[in-house]
UniProtKB/TrEMBL annotation:
It comes from Candidatus Phytoplasma phoenicium. GO terms for cellular component: small ribosomal subunit. Pfam families: Ribosomal_S7. Belongs to the universal ribosomal protein uS7 family. One of the primary rRNA binding proteins, it binds directly to 16S rRNA where it nucleates assembly of the head domain of the 30S subunit. Is located at the subunit interface close to the decoding center, probably blocks exit of the E-site tRNA. PANTHER family: RIBOSOMAL PROTEIN S7 (PTHR11205). Residues 3-149 form the Small ribosomal subunit protein uS7 domain. This is Small ribosomal subunit protein uS7. Keywords: Ribonucleoprotein, Ribosomal protein, RNA-binding, rRNA-binding, tRNA-binding. The keyword rRNA-binding applies. GO terms for biological process: translation. One of its GO terms (molecular function) is structural constituent of ribosome. Part of the 30S ribosomal subunit. Contacts proteins S9 and S11. The keyword Transcription does not apply.
Amino acid sequence: MSRKKRIYKKDISPDPVYNSKLVTKIINTIMQDGEKRVAQTILYCALDLVKELTQREPMDVLNEALNNVMPILEVRTRTIGSQNYQVPSEVRPERRQSLGLRWIIQCSKKRKEKSMKEKLAKELVDASSGIGITVKKKEDTHRMAEANKAFAHYHW
């Protein structure tokens, strides 16, 4: 039995504007070098742009984009003998959300628009409508898991 104490997750407080814990998680994912105010400005401006572009509530677009991006399956490398196998496994709900957020931010950084606000807004709109780099990344992950279904019996 492990001697370490169990580490409990910190309860994050909801952001002041949208009163949502999800928005706080996105801000913390965007944040670099502790510049939280900059990350907040980027996200809030991006959500305002989303409202202008889609004429819909920005939180609805954000939730829809996240649901379209979150992976259900992923592959994990498992070494058996001296061979490495890509074993498909189901993704836990917390990891699904964090992977989705991370992918949205990474793929929005790769876009060609001028500012990060525009990049993030366009990526959220694309992801909510089921197109974009992030949705393609999710589909690639699922395709990889499907291709390696034969190794599912190595699942641990």
